[in-house]
Each structure stands twice: as C-alpha cells, then as structure tokens.
Design a protein that fits this description.
Structural class: alpha+beta
Number of helices: 17
Largest sheet: 9 strands, antiparallel
Length: about 850
C-alpha cells in the first residue's frame, strides 16, 4: 500500500492537493436549431448574456434526467499540488462544443469525526463521493459564471477518501474549475497516496510555483532556458512543448524538448529555438520524479530583432515587403494563401494544407471560422482561376453550406455576439451573397441575393454602432486586426455607402493606432487585451499594420488581415506618421470617448521618448474583464513597458478574463492630466487578492532606482516615476521575479508620471521629485487619493466624483468619439484629423 504525503489547509483556505485523472473531452453539440437574433449592436466588454446554446440545453437536459453517475476507478495521470492556484483549474479554449470531464481524488483528515463544512464553487457540475458513497452534487452549468453553495461531507478522524467528478460544457473559452474552501475551525489535512519521499513532492511543488523563462524576451542567439528559485535537490525529468496559436491549437506543436534538471541546478536548458518563429508562445511543461508527475503551463517571448525595421518611403513598396514576409514567415493560415495569390505566386504545399484546414474549420463550424471565411471568399472571388478545379468545388460547397448568422440552423458554438465577430459574419454574408446571387445556400435555404440584402442591412447597423458609440474593443492590439479582416474586405468588395463607411472607419482606426504607437509598438490603453499583447508588444498582429502604415516597426507571423491591407489600394490618412513618431521636443495630447455608454474616456500624453495612456472613469468598483486601463510604453526598447492593475486570478500564467496581468479583478478609478496619472483601487471588504501591482520588467530598462514607496525607471531618454500609498514590494522569486511590484491593502493608490530627459541627463532630478512628492490615501466609503508636489501643486482623485487640480474639479474635456488632438507648441494645434492633415 502506498504511503501518504500530507498537505495542510487552514480555515478559509482551499483544498488543492488532489490526484488527477486525464481530462476527457467529447463532442457534444446538441440539436440543430435556429437561434434568436438577440444582437442589439450595443457592444459591451465581457458580454455573456447570449442565452443557452443547443449544447448547453442538451447537457442540462441530460444532467436532469440521468441517474447519479457511478464512481469509476481512474488512472491517476498527474498531481495538483498546493501553490499557485486556489482552484483545481483546467480552463481552456475549445473551438467546438465539447463535454468536459475530469476525476480527482484525495484523502481528508479533519481532526475529528463528523460533518465537515465546505464552500463549493464551480461553473459546471461537481459530484462528490466520500468513502465510496455518493454524498452531494452541485450542477449549475452557468457558462463562465461562478456559482457557489455550502456543503457538508461526513469525514472520519482517521481519514476519508474523497473523490470528485468535475464536469462542464465547453463553449470556446471555458472556465473549467472547482474550488473547495474549508469552513472548519481546525487545520484540515489532505493526504495523497504516493511511494515518493515527501521531499520529492516538495521539490515538484517548488518547481511548479517558481518556473519562469530566464529572460523577458529571447533572441536568435539564445537557448530556451527556464529558471527556478533554489538549487534542485535531485534530478527532475522535464518534458516541454510549444503549441501553435489558439487558431491552430489542433495542429502539432512547433517545438518539443526533453531534458533533465540536474541536482544543484537552478536553470533548465531546453535547447535552441530555430524551429520557432518570433512570437509570444504557450509552453506546456511536465515535471517528473519517478512516477510522480505534475503539469504547468507558462509562456515565453521570442523576438530576433530588438530594433524596429525601417521600411521604404513609398506605401506600395512597404505593402510588397509585407506580402513577401507573410509568404516567407507567416502562419499557415488562409491569409498566407491570399498573400501568395495577391503576389502572383502559385500555391505551394503549405498553402494547400492551410486551405484544407480552413475548409475543415468552416465545415465543422469551428469558433473563429468567420475570421478565415473572409479571406477564403476574397481568394475565391479574385483568384479562382489560380485554384485547381477540385478545390474550387470544395470552396463553393463550404461557402454555400456555412452558417452566416445565429438565426440560421446550427448547433455550433461560434461566437456571434462580440464587436469583431459580428463584423466578420456580416462581411462574410455580404461577399458570399454577392459571389453567388442566384445559388440557394444549403444551410439557410436563402439565395445569395437574399443573403446579400440581409448582410447589407446588418452591416449598416454595425456601422451605425461604431459611429454612435465608438468601439468597445478600443485600441485593441488583439482585435483591431480582426476588425481589419472585415473592414479591408468591405473597402475592397463593398459597393456605394458600404464601401465608403468601411473606408471612413479604417481612417479612424489608423488615426487611433498612430496616436498609441511609439517606437513601432502598438501600445496604450485597450478595450480588450491578453497577456500576449501586453507582455510582447512588438509581437502582436497589430504591429505590422503600424509598420506598413507609418514606415517603421515589426513584421510578425500574423496573417489574419495584413495580406488584405497589402492587396488593397487603401492608404491611411496623410500626416499620421507624425503622430506615430512625434518630433523631438513635441508633446502630443489626445482625448476622446469610446464604447457604448461612454465605457472609456481615453487620455494620451506622448513624446518622442515615452507614452502615457489611460482609460478614465471606466466603471470603478465593477468586476473587470479585459480592459487594460493604464499603460506606459517607451520608444527606446519594445519591452520597456509599465502598467498597474488588480490581478483577476491567482495564477500568474492563467488565461481567465481578467487574468493575473490582463484586465482587473476590480476596476479602479483613474484620473489623468497631461503626463500625470492617478489610480485608486477599492477592492472591497474581502478581496480575493488584497493587492494591486505594477508590471515593470527591470531588465528591460537602462536604469532602475527605488525607494520605499517609489520607483524611477529610465529607457533611452524617457523615464517614469511610480509613487504608491504603501511600500512597493518587488517580487524576487517565482513568476513575478524581476517584473512584479506589489502594494498590499484593500484600498491602494498609485501615481505615474512620465518625463523626457535632456540629452546626457541622469534621473537625479526625478529621484528628488519622487522623494519630495507625497501620495496620500483618505479612507472611507468614497476614498480619495492626493498627489502633492512642491512645484506643481495638488492633484486629487476622488473615488466618487473624479479628478481635481488644486481643488478645482477637472471633468473629462470632451464627449467626442473622434480624438481631440493637440500639440505642445502653439503653432501646431489640431482639433480634428482634418485640421491635422
């Protein structure tokens, strides 16, 4: 019989020591139905009220009518050990509807025999057995919305075997987890059966908690190395793989390695990176000592060229270079196929593989298939003669059989509700109907002409929404490229007003991109962001658009929409290159509103060396989603970036929305005037994580100076001063080592101040300013944050009423959805884009 390894859970903490079975996922679509068109074109960040899709209706029906599941023996394939997450969390992304299932087991020792009290939280369903007897079930099956209940389990002092069956319904991004919180008054022990020495488990836990890339960004000369905090006490077998992007996650990994972390080592060397292209890559890890195995998922950035590329003066030449780069280095997706044909080149083997995968995704109605449907239609409409006849037939069949809107028959989990998806579905229907006006579309029973008429009306509603409300996904380096899929297609294929309105919105987007681009990096506040956009700015899909439009930046592997830009005659408005790269000594300011209900009031202060950007008054106190509210980016180094947020989950490498770094668990009050920004976070009486933190990768800055409650960081001739209402605690180990700086408290405040330094100047004056300034917090139901500086007076942010400058209320200066732009010099004052150009 195996011996037990013990792990303690204090009152109020969660039980996380479990042996796990394999994660099982089975296709479960439910009945084909026609959905209800419930899109009101008032797009809201984090909107989830889509109703129940066929798969969820089917699983609820099955759960309601099935007998109690049978306790099954299961192979224990991994361990979940205490450390970096208070949940048993298996969240992920499934492109088609899948029923999820995973078994977990532990042995609990309560200290005394009797009823033991727990809080159980999940989104899907949980069944619990104690000593072989089914005790309870909790099955809310609410998509990504956590529900909780109180349960009691009959536990014996000498230990009881507890088995969990954890289930959920995967509809694309899925929060699949269970959280079991101990409500007793004594320490609860959990025992895992193992033949391993307790020190083995301690080693595995330490590695899982601490593991991180050895560098913020790797380059061509590097090997892929990972760091841990303490010398390893024994040999550990390491298996690693780098998967493809979320859109190609069903494809084989791009990189596979195995090695041994030897006794006494603190660095894992996984070998050269030749097989990987530039990107922010997901890295799956498995650590094993004998039969004991644990899993961990982290990410890494790879960029072979740390300085932006200067492209030719002529836009047409830049487009040709970008098409060539997409052909030679782009992901094997539909956009690369379009790039080949737009360049007059024949399709190669990789192109046919991408075309086959595109058609499979459209036929199976994978989520995000609307993103590739648009370039497929473009390819067919413009270059059919270059495609073999048998492929033409397959393409036409896929087009005629697709589900173009939720009110057409289907049982998929394609996402019809967000700003970017709505656009791509409408554009797909518009182009498809135009290509085949007289054909009857198999799925809908409508003719192409009827589809075209529907799409024309729907496109008008989308255009009206953007005109009336701006964009819910403002300035998003993740989603502007998706908007470009539809907008460039409408610029190219649209007729009359449909084309003109697409062109106008393209002009607006490129204006906002120019404003928030610095040093070739598309940065700034964003309506929706993921870790990859924030921690690897030059590697986003938006970066190459800025490079082509303004002449300097990075060309990446992204091909979702860039080949469309390069295949059109579209030219961004004149003069944007000056906003993208301000002249020396000039400061550009911009203010404008974006999102339904004025979701974000955006402020920007930008020089040649540093950019400060913020979203003001964005629902303080509310639960956040993917809103990135405050951002500082430097021109001299693409990875020299700073932001402040309240983490939205426990796991520093998690993928929830909000995650640890992207978004906010609790939204702050933000105020900004010129180059000064205040952030006031009120986290509530019992916050899950009682701290806010700054992301600031110290290795990417030229100079870093710190005091108890301040930091000064310099990159090139730009600098930022961070001041906090409490001690700033730099994390020196684990995933936050060298990048994370915390301030603990249920109410916290930060001030960020950006400055340009004179040539050859040090940071001494800014350090003196940091020491002289005071940042004070007034507690209460409506706290306030006050920054006082001897020469600049007082800046106060009131949680209820907003920003005050020297006791005078400073409301946001505009309600316009078009940027109100001005420059520091009186002879260069712009109020509209037209005046600028």
């Amino acid at each position: 019989m195996s011996k037990l390894a013990y792990f303690s859970t204090r009152p109020g903490d969660t039980v996380t020591a479990f042996a796990l079975g394999p994660l099982e996922a089975s296709y479960f679509p439910g009945a084909v139905t026609r959905g209800t068109d419930n899109v009101d074109y008032k797009f809201i960040n984090g909107f989830v009220d889509v109703g129940d899709l066929p798969c969820r209706i089917a699983i609820r029906d099955d759960v309601a009518n099935r007998p109690t599941p049978t306790l099954e023996p299961f192979e224990k394939t991994a361990l979940n050990l205490p450390g970096f997450n208070r949940r048993l969390d298996f969240s992920g992304f499934w492109h088609t509807p899948h029923r999820l299932k995973r078994w977990a087991a532990t042995r609990l020792f309560p200290g005394r025999t009797g009823e033991a009290s727990f809080k159980l939280a999940t989104c899907g369903g949980v069944h619990i057995w104690v000593d072989g007897e089914h005790i309870t079930a909790y099955e809310p099956y609410t998509r990504n919305a956590t529900q909780e209940t109180q349960i009691t389990l009959p536990l014996r002092a000498e230990g009881s075997d507890v088995v969990l069956l954890i289930e959920d319904m995967a509809e694309r991004d899925t929060n699949f987890f269970v959280e079991l919180t101990w409500r007793g008054t004594d320490v609860l022990r959990a025992g895992l059966p193992t033949d391993a020495d307790p020190a083995v488990l301690d080693t595995l836990m330490d590695i899982a908690r601490a593991i991180r890339p050895s560098k913020v960004v790797f380059d061509a000369s590097d090997t892929l190395s990972l760091s841990i905090d303490s010398p390893c006490p024994c040999d550990v077998q390491i298996s690693a793989s780098v998967g493809q992007s979320v859109h190609l996650s069903h494809k084989p990994p791009l990189f596979v390695a195995s090695t041994t972390l030897t006794r006494g080592a603190t660095v894992i060397d996984l070998g050269r990176l030749e097989t990987l292209g530039d990107g922010y890559h997901p890295l799956k890890l498995e650590f094993a000592i004998g039969a004991m195995r644990i899993e961990r998922a982290i990410s890494l950035a790879l960029l072979r060229k740390n300085k932006p590329t200067r492209l030719p003066t002529e836009l047409s030449a830049r487009k040709r270079i970008a098409l060539r780069h997409a052909i030679d280095h782009g992901q094997h997706r539909m956009g690369r196929v379009l790039a080949l044909l737009a360049s007059g080149e024949p399709l190669d083997t990789a192109a046919f593989e991408a075309l086959d995968d595109t058609l499979d995704g459209i036929k199976s109605r994978r989520d995000c298939s609307d993103f590739v449907m648009v370039p497929l239609l473009w390819t067919y409409g413009a270059y059919a003669d270059a495609i073999p006849t048998e492929w033409q037939k397959r393409i036409k069949q896929a087009i005629l059989g697709y589900r173009y809107w939720m009110d057409q028959p289907g049982n998929d989990t394609m996402w019809f509700w967000s700003e970017n998806h709505v656009l791509c579905f409408h554009v797909s229907e518009y182009i498809a109907g135009g290509l085949f006006p007289d054909d009857v579309f198999e799925n809908s029973g409508l003719t192409g002409a009827e589809h075209r008429a529907l799409a024309d009306a729907r496109m008008t509603r989308w255009y009206d929404s953007v005109s009336d409300h701006g964009l819910a996904e403002w300035n998003s380096a993740a989603y502007y490229p998706i908007d470009f899929i539809g907008l460039f297609a409408m610029h190219h294929w649209g007729e009359g007003e449909a084309k003109a309105r697409a062109t106008h919105i393209l002009d607006q987007l490129f204006t906002m991109i120019a404003l928030h681009n610095i040093g070739g990096v598309s940065a700034g506040t964003m309506g929706r962001a993921y870790d990859k956009e924030l921690r690897a700015g030059p590697l986003t899909e938006l970066s190459p658009f800025a490079a082509v439009a303004f002449g300097s930046g990075w060309l990446t592997e992204g091909v979702a929409a860039l080949p469309e830009f390069c295949a059109t005659d579209y030219s961004p408005p004149l003069g944007l290159d000056i906003m993208a790269a301000p002249h020396e000594g000039r400061a550009i300011a911009a203010y404008y509103v974006q999102g339904y209900g004025a979701a974000a009031r955006l402020a920007l202060h930008k020089t040649a060396h540093v950019q400060l950007s913020a979203a003001i008054d964005a629902a303080p106190g509310a639960t956040g989603h993917q809103q990135h509210l405050v951002d500082v980016q430097f021109a001299a180094s693409p990875f020299a970036r700073v932001w402040v947020n309240h983490p939205g989950e426990d796991n520093p490498w998690g993928s929830n929305r909000p995650s640890f770094w992207a978004g906010n668990g609790v939204m702050p009050r933000v105020g900004m005037v010129e180059n000064r920004c205040l952030i006031l976070s009120k986290l509530g009486a019992d916050p899950r994580l009682a701290f806010t933190h700054a992301y600031a990768p110290v290795s990417e800055f030229d100079k870093v100076h710190t005091g108890t409650d301040w930091m000064v960081l310099r990159s090139g001739r730009g600098a930022v001063l961070l001041k906090a209402t409490g001690a700033i605690e730099a994390q020196i180990d684990g995933p936050g080592a060298g990048i994370e700086h915390r301030v603990y408290g249920k109410t916290t405040g930060w001030a960020l101040i950006t400055v340009d330094l004179a040539p050859g100047a040090t940071c001494d004056a800014l350090i003196a300013r940091a020491r002289a300034a005071s940042l004070t917090l007034t507690e209460g139901p409506d706290p306030s944050l006050t920054l006082r500086e001897p020469t600049l007076g007082e800046l106060r942010l009131d949680y209820a009423t907003g920003l005050y400058v020297d006791s005078v209320h400073r409301p946001f200066p505009t309600e316009s959805y078009a940027p109100q732009i001005s420059a520091a010099q009186p002879d260069v004052v712009m109020r509209t884009l037209e005046e600028w150009t």
